[in-house]
Amino acid sequence: MAEDTEKKVLPAPTGSKKMQLIVIALLMLGEGAVVYFVANAMSPRPIQGFAVEADKGVGEDANPMDELVEIDIVSCKPSNKMSGKLVLFQMRTSALIARSDLEKVTTLLESKGGRISDRVNFVIRSADPKHLNEPGLETIKRRIKHELDGLLGDERLIKEVLIPELLQSNAGN
Predict the structure, then answer these.
(1) N or C, fewer C-beta in 10 Å, the chain?
(2) CATH architecture of the domain formed by 64-170
């Protein structure tokens, strides 16, 4: 009776094991291909205009007129009382502009020098003390650029405002 309860296991033919491995390998390869094509179809494509602009300044065919140049805007000594104490500043402001706009911007700066100095002084006089203490002075640069864009009549002339010098000192308090 003990012999009746034991099941006899027949050895699998060796050809079927190889066939199972081949089928599994083909299934895995097919699954990988499906994942690749689905991921490739769903991924965003690069914007052609951006790729052209990114390569524009890199090669030998770059136009030297598209380069940016630095130009001095104004040097001034504004003050600020927004914190309750008088703080004096010594400041120099520059800007990055396209080389092709250099002559136009230079002419505008010469003709509007007093107004430009007034607006830069206004930005510092009205600035919140926390903006004057930002490590990169981002808020002050953005406000000066806004004022300059309005005075020059074209927001595309000035690419970036630079503040290479901004020294603060308390007025004897």
Answers:
(1) N
(2) 2-Layer Sandwich (3.30)
